[in-house]
Design goal:
4 domains; Prenyl_trans_a; about 375 residues; mainly alpha; elongated
């Protein structure tokens, strides 16, 4: 019989990995007889559980029995897959396996094959739509417990792309519009729970690009504003904002000059709130761009210097000052006299020396930057 650990079926590469993953999930899910002591101290209201030796042994046996049952079930599913069994019984078996272990991607693949080869060919479009809607509900149950398992998101994507035309010829996109709108609602609810789930953000971008009726980009910009204001340390929201603004600027729907000034105000607020947040500084560098605008570059250098004066140990302030001053030396050397150029070079060298002390893990990087700054002296 085909085993769950065989590479040829796209399952886990080692049986032990499947066993261990399953055991971890079920280790504390079973009820057992135990004694309870309660910590009544003012600092704690947590019940401390002490298991008797007999209870621990019984618990272990139950887990082993559960694991054995799962492995038999998984082997049965993979054997059916090898036989190309596209029956409803096989579909039910995939459901049972995935309810236990939603990370077994081979079974997700098999489930889709059953739909395509066994279920859909004998179903009406309305039935196909209902089946796909039910599978979206099925995966939603798993996402609540495993929001970062890629294979669940991947199956949802397949379900949405498989929605047929309907319900009528005059409304051929009706089912698709309904399902995609629901999907956007679902993923945004998940981001309300975990605003920095990068898988959810990537999936959300996919949903936005796939919707039959596109969401207005101004609405999307407002969404990123809400997410950023709720938590400045949201790299995905800042990244999405940069993509939306670029699109709006390219289409001429917003003035880059006017808009950038507002964005600098927003990111400055975030910088002062948490100067150690990398995502804020990355967005700030995106706004500054290549530093071609001398007035903006000089103003932002002064702004960052002001923050460094208040936060003298801020690594990101120092790194950014070096970066922006280097842009000044690269792009605007004709505006500088020798004294100004030397002052910029020396200030960069001082900052890089401090960075080597406070951030020794990246010492070589700062040494390389120091060599780059010194070249401006030899090229003068």
């Amino acid at each position: 019989m085909e085993r769950v650990d065989e590479r040829a079926n796209g399952g886990c590469t080692r049986r032990g990995r499947v066993d261990a993953r399953f055991t971890r999930r079920t280790a504390f899910s079973q009820h057992c007889h135990h004694t309870i002591s309660v910590d009544n101290s003012p600092k704690s209201c947590v019940k401390r559980v002490r298991y008797t030796q007999e209870a621990l042994e019984a618990k272990k046996q139950r887990e082993q029995a559960k694991l054995k049952e799962y492995l038999i079930l998984a082997d049965s599913v993979l054997a059916r897959r090898k036989r190309k069994d596209w029956s409803k019984d096989a579909l039910e078996l995939t459901t049972r396996v995935l309810q236990i272990n939603p990370e077994l991607y081979t079974v997700w693949n098999y489930r889709r094959d059953i739909f395509l080869n066994g279920i859909f060919p004998t179903s009406e479009p309305s039935q196909v739509n209902d089946i796909l809607s039910n599978d979206l509900s099925f995966t939603m149950t798993h996402l609540k417990q495993h929001p970062k398992v890629y294979w669940i998101w991947n199956h949802r994507r397949w379900c949405l792309e498989a929605v047929p035309d309907g319900p009528t010829q005059d409304d051929a996109d009706g089912w698709r519009i309904s399902n995609w709108n629901k999907e956007l609602f679902v993923v945004e609810k998940m981001l309300d729970v975990d605003a920095r789930n990068f898988l959810a953000w990537n999936y959300r971008r996919y949903v936005l690009s796939s919707m039959p009726v596109k969401r207005p980009e101004q609405t999307e910009l407002a969404y990123t504003t809400r997410k950023i204001e709720a938590n400045f340390s949201n790299f995905s929201a800042w990244h999405q904002r940069s993509k939306v603004l670029t699109s709006l600027w390219d289409q001429g729907k917003l003035s880059p000059e006017i808009c950038r000034e507002k964005e600098f105000d927003l990111v400055k607020n975030a910088m002062y709130t948490d100067p150690g947040d990398q995502s804020v500084w990355i967005y700030h560098r995106w706004l500054v761009g290549q530093g071609k605008d001398y007035a903006i570059l000089s103003r932002e250098i002064a702004s960052v210097q002001e923050l460094l004066d208040e936060q003298p140990d801020s690594k990101w302030c120092m790194e950014s000052l070096v970066f922006y001053k280097q842009l000044t030396l690269q792009n605007h050397t004709s505006r500088l006299n020798d004294a100004q150029r030397q002052q910029i070079i020396q200030s960069c060298l001082v900052l890089l020396a401090v960075l080597q002390d406070i951030d020794p893990m990246r010492k070589q990087r700062y040494k390389d930057l120091t060599e780059g700054i010194n070249r401006f002296q030899t090229n003068a």
